[in-house]
Amino acid sequence: MFHTQTVERLEAKKIKGHTYYYYSGWGWKNGKCRRLWQKYLGKLDKIVQAVQGRAPVPGHAEVFSWGLPVALRNEARRAQIMDCVNQLCPKRDQGLSPGDYIGLAAVNRAAHPVSKQAMWQWFSTTSLVRQWPEVTADLLSSQRFWDHMDRIEPSTAQAIWQQIITGVVQREHIDLSRICYDGTNFYTFIDTFNTQCQIARRGKNKQGRSNLRQVSYALFCSTDGHLPLFYDVYEGNCNDSKEFPRVLEKFQQWLKQHAGEGTVAQPTLVFDKGNNSEANFELIDSLKLNYVGSMKLDEHSDLAQVSNQDERWRACSSQGLTQTKAWRLTQEVYGKPRVVVVTYNESLFQSQWATVQSDVAHAAQQLAALRQTLQNRIDGIVKGGQKPTVDTVRQKCRLILHRQHLSQIIATTVTETSSGMPQLEYALDESAQQKLCDTLLGKTILVTGHDQWTDEQVIRAYRSQFIIEEVFREMKDRHTGCWWPMNHWTDSKIHVHGLYCTIAILLRGLMWRRVRAAGLPLSMEQMLAELDSIREVLNVYAPQRGVPSSPQQSVLTKLSEVQSKLVEILDLKKDI
User: pTM for this structure?
Assistant: First the structure.
């Protein structure tokens, strides 16, 4: 039986000639006065230092990356990444679950992508090492990662993603009224004679590495932030327009089955001209999809050749469109009358004109060098080597003028001298250049199924395509991009790689969406950089008597105003 009154005392104990002080509480227990609790204070000099405000000096400090990895892990929890993976790919009896491995890989890809061999090295330098205490160096070995990746079949990877994004769309109330689509490819260093990999094939690489095997990647993205909705990893030699109908039908099926009752029944699909074909437009019509796309200028020369000063142009007055003018008509496109909006943008014109001028200068330099080389042969200065012919010189000219528009505005003439040597003359065609400026440059031809939309609505919808282009640019960035490094050489692992890279895009996009919704005007790059610069400093003190581990004190580096807002918006205070 206890009495409620407790007496607090300062007690001194002498141990091996040293005096130690304790703060204790005494009270009655079962009719006897007993010590109920005590707290060690230390020697007298330590007490004096504490009273005078001189705190003990830590033995050392450890610095960990805190802001970005913690924010990403919290976002992964909100999106239920680990739960969705484990539901479709149950955990083994020991170690980390498949969900832990995919979640860790996605967080790493969204923060600082490294190879699987370097995962522990990265993980141990972040605050996740204490927030995810079950993770050890042995569990993060590359072999453990590969073992768990092998358990996820390509169909399972797609099912995992669909379950993740279905939950995100419903919980976050993602706007699906406008969805953009595009495809890209990623070159690899997979050996030519590797027969275990069928998905990496040679094709037209969009980064100019067509000599390497590549993997293709298609993506549907919501214009409500950088949020991926549906993706597909497919053979590197597959043409974009051929992949489009296959992935479109899959996406439409997901949209109907999983996106929920509250979503838009008929979203507007925005896509680029690389996906155009008669069969694809027939599919869009059969699916009854609203759409906004673009068309190649050289396939519609009647519209492309209309002067930029034509009286049909009408200036756009909406904010952000002041340098744009447009006119519309109804014209048969891929077997059906469709609304066509022809646009001209001054900024696009200036950019294209600068590119043309740069190409002209470079081509003129090469042509001058080729002409001088031929003249040196005629003059007998150069005698060795294979003798040029009219055909070989013309072939070289075609290679020099391979850039768009150059063959129309630079005229070349190859003649043969009396001695049988070819001679080159070239000149800039001023009238052709002027015609180019007045017709093709700055012009875009759009096609849409929205006959009730204004020209400005169609233009704004098409311009949302920049979102997916930014996503691809972020994925391919060699410093912060989530796709590289990719050191996998089997189809199954490449499919899983595509899964956690897409999850990484989702985590970044969700964070950025929250930040923008809170009114903080940061770009994706600025947000990631601000979070990445927040560090946790762990002060470690000398071990005390009777304490099994060294005392530690965790503090964050000084936060800027922007960083403080990010911590509040992303609800990171609970992790401080």
Answer: 0.84
